[in-house]
Amino acid sequence: xxxxxxxxxxxxxxxxxxxxxxxxxxxxxxxxxxxxxxxxxxxxxxxxxxxxxxxxxxxxxxxxxxxxxxxxxxxxxxxxxxxxxxxxxxxxxxxxxxxxxxxxxxxxxxxxxxxxxxxxxxxxxxxxxxxxxxxxxxxxxxxxxxxxxxxxxxxxxxxxxxxxxxxxxxxxxxxxxxxxxxxxxxxxxxxxxxxxxxxxxxxxxxxxxxxxxxxxxxxxxxxxxxxxxxxxxxxxxxxxxxxxxxxxxxxxxxxxxxxxxxxxxxxxxxxxxxxxxxxxxxxxxxxxxxxxxxxxxxxxxxxxxxxxxxxxxxxxxxxxxxxxxxxxxxxxxxxxxxxxxxxxxxxxxxxxxxxxxxxxxxxxxxxxxxxxxxxxxxxxxxxxxxxxxxxxxxxx
Length: 396
Ligand code: AMP
Fold this sequence. Notes:
This protein has about 400 residues and is α/β, with parallel strands linked by helices. The chain has two domains: about 1-145, CATH 3.30.420.40; about 195-385, Nucleotidyltransferase, domain 5. It contains 15 helices and 14 strands. It has helices at about 60-75, 105-110, 120-135, 155, 165-170, 180-190, 245-255, 260-265, 270-275, 280-290, 295-315, 330-335, 335-345, 355-360, 385-395, and strands at about 1-5, 10-20, 25-35, 40-45, 50-55, 85-90, 100, 140-145, 200-205, 210-215, 220-225, 325, 365, 375-380. The strands form two sheets. Strands 5-4-3-2-1-6-8-7 form an eight-stranded mixed sheet, sandwiched between helices. Strands 11-10-9-12-14-13 form a six-stranded mixed sheet, sandwiched between helices. A hairpin with a 6-residue loop joins strand 3 (about 25-35) and strand 4. Helix 7 packs across helix 8, helix 10 (about 280-290) packs across helix 11 and helix 11 (about 295-315) crosses helix 13. The longest helix is centred in the last third of the chain and has 25 residues, at about 295-315. The protein is globular. The N and C termini lie close together (about 10 Å). About 45% of the residues are buried. The mean pLDDT is about 95. The site of adenosine monophosphate has 11 residues, from helix 10 and helix 12. It catalyses: acetate + ATP = acetyl phosphate + ADP.
């Protein structure tokens, strides 16, 4: 078995895969431990049944031990040695360009990147340390959201700031959601029956966190997120790109220090900031159709910013590319968001098939009509499966 772990500062999402068939690992169980250090709640799905436990989780180690004990109780595993490897989602891996066995050097890089991803990397570090203690025999693999974007060229990754900021402080665009982009690129290669290294795509990963990536010849060519996941398009609670002077200006206006303003840009902006009510796209689209001006304002801005980046990336691909893909919570499910974004792309000769946009689907579906010059698809991402496959490849 392979355990895939996506840990935050107070939560651990986990998925267990059976890797008997190493080419096609099958997911056996998935769940989440939440509210770690606050009080604690664990839930998971196994064989169609939902299990829920309210209990004290003072730290990640207790949470992981609890989950493993439950797996043994339910006979999912006989003992912890049935799990031969653990794959971790790591948001920031600085310049590491591929998934890697977690040795001392990799662990140090993940630790150094805490200052670049203070909201994300600390949880992963605590989880790695906990697994090392509880399962000393398991091999551990780190899969980075940044790795896929290491193919960006200087013109894309440099910021027009003093060059020494890049050389001495690592100030550059790193890009994120790379595990999802890697999965989507492989899936699109299957769907279009086209070799991965010839694929040119614009992939819109629209979840709570959101980014768009321009994929040229199967590699990341440009992406919207930057030094941190705060940059790029507007998101659920993150602002995306803004005039950098707003930070100093609002710091003085509100008499708050820069880190507090940055916190507002991370947690109280985006859809939540502009609507003043919700960061959840289901609320936003419901309100939009009811004529609520707060939701209309938020959705119009959100879809315009996304469309602006799609045009920019189409320009990089020369307007002759294999398709636009929508993925993640909003991209996969929000019919209205997809439609509003596509309606704002008059230069691209896209013909949407409204019925297809609305119909339910399995792994993927076309949204564009047969005659559309540019194909548009919704594809369900599967970051856990990608992590599992990389973990198998590095440990078998
Ligand atoms: P993620 O971070 O990928 O889990 O995506 C979370 C976002 O997806 C939230 O804004 C949700 O409102 C949105 N989402 C999930 N399901 C739907 C749905 N059926 N329709 C519209 N938005 C959805």
